[in-house]
Amino acid sequence: MSRAINLNLSEADAREQCASRSIGISAIETLPDGGVRLVCMSSEGAALLRRRLKSQILADGARRTANSTRRLPW
Predict the structure, then answer these.
(1) pLDDT tens by residue, 24-43
(2) How far apart are alpha carbons 66 and 51 in whole angstroms?
(3) Where are the domains of the chain?
């Protein structure tokens, strides 16, 4: 299962949702058409977010910008 999810949330809201569920973030990217692409540290965390935020999930084909992924420091 993929660790990446496209969500119809702001970056701050996505971070808050992950923090409240103790889900690690590997990378986060703001999408040009709105929302964020979130890569979780584990597939279990991604699966939990998919279940909890089902109504906020965007299509996998969401348009992205080149080289805009911000990686978080380890």
Answers:
(1) 999 999 998 889 999 999 99
(2) 29
(3) 4-59
Contact predicate 29/70, CB 8 Å: yes
% the chain with pLDDT above 70: 86
In contact, 6 and 37? CB cutoff 8 Å:
yes
Closest C-alpha to 35, from 8, 67, 3: 8
Length of the chain: 74
The pTM of the full predicted model, rounded to 2 decimals, is: 0.80
Question: In degrees to the nearest 10, what's the CA dihedral of 67, 8, 59, 5?
Answer: 60
